[in-house]
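Input:
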Amino acid sequence: MIEIENVTFHHGKSPILKDVSLTIKRGGITALIGPNGAGKSTLFALMARLLPLQSGKISFDAMDIRQTPSRELAKKLAILRQDTHVASRITVQDMVGFGRFPHHQGRATSLDHDKVQAALNVFDLADIAERFIDELSGGQRQRVLVAMAYAQDTEYLLLDEPLNNLDMHFARNLMHQLRDLADNHGKTIVVVLHEINYAAAHADTIIALKNGEVAAHSRTDEFMTEEAISRIYDMSVKVKAVDGLKMALHHV
Amino acid sequence: MRHHFAPLQRTSALWPIVLAVVLLGLVAGSLVTGAANVSALDLFRRGESGDILLVSRLPRTLATILTGASLAVAGVIMQTLVRNRFVEPATTGTGECAALGLLATLLLVPGAPLLAKMAISSAAAFAGTAIFLALVSRLPPTQPLLVPLTGIVYGGIIGSISIFIAYENDLLQYISVWMNGEFSGVLQGRYELLWASGAAALAAYFYADQFTVAGFGKDTAHGLGLSYRAVMIAGLSIVALITSFTVLTVGMLPFVGLVVPNIISRFRGDNTKETLPLVAILGGALVLASDLIGRLIRYPYEIPAGTIFGVLGTGVFLWLLFARPARRG
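Output:
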């Protein structure tokens, strides 16, 4: 269970998050949505202890992120940040391999190799395993980073806009993969999504942030209403059901 | 999928072997080159020829290799931690700070034991590099060349301060010896500190994965549970030690830490655990080759190895600047 209690964050004078409290239960996929500048990435950075907490408390299964050593937390949660830019010239295989670093601290075992190999296969990277990541396309690099987080094999997986740069083939693949991780491997996944229909199709729960506050937190099918989406994004959006799946027609 | 990896493993095993063979050839060349006519086999015989080898040629050869290897390793560490391909101890003010520290010991505690002088010099190099890092952390990441430019200006300022102080105290010749690397004065008993420099470079190998992870950037490193600060401090300490040992014993050799890691990175990538040994061997080989060229080109007179490497290094540096795709910055 992820517990976020009364988290407030200021950047200079301007408030980014205002007294945010959330409880995310174990298991399943939670989609974090909201307009640009709503505070999604800041909340993620705080959860991943990349930014220092100014006030409030965040804990994973009662492990307070302020009290738990970084090395222990790295075995509990993996995070993929938005726009992660790695300038190192490193092969795909080695890069994904470093996802195992929290577990082996530099001395990889055969278990680590197996997990890396599995990650390469799952994200369709085995054929380019020997390429340097600076020679890859944006989408391939994004898949490498997701595979790295996958190889880290933590109970919690936090992904900030993992669909960036992915074409629809790999975007859907990734969402199916996350679904499989949640359903069959007991992982708890929190994912920031821009495209609300991916959230509608694949997430169990939706949390909406707006202006640094929690604007909605409900089961996906309950959330997907014209009223809720229009209110959060300040635009009128039609919601239609196709084959029982609610979809927002936000692009027309 | 195993078959995918076989070809790479073959070539990656080849690199160290080829480089090591080249290095051994250079060692043999270095042992037989000099004013006195000596064969490498004299090393195992008693007599004057054996003495020349033991007292002069062998120490000089070892000093050259140790200097080249450890400076190249210092370059990799700097480039990985700063995440910039154009930094090395000579473009970040590290060498100048080490020299300033030595100058301070000469003036303030002239009677201090060598170890204390080294400690002060290393501390100065560490502090100076930390200040440089604080300076460049404000630069826009889209302008990678600003980092070495800032470092060169910063080093220039510190170097000028040293020269002013040295001039006022009639110690200018020291500065010139510290800042211009050359090996003609290396004799048995006068280079052994470089083994400590080599040991510091060896210590870097045990941090190799940590350096690589830190090179992914602070966020990714934190996500992988790396203690970023501790790794930075370890890396900078190793760089400071190598730099001050080198400055005191043979003098600073610019470009070694810049050129060697870039060549290896281009062909073998940045996974430090794999590349550090290659960087060390290539660094040793190139500096030894420069020294050898310097000894042969105007035989029996000498041109300092630092000068030769400077000329060769500038050429390679220009090639790296223009031949490397822009996105690699």
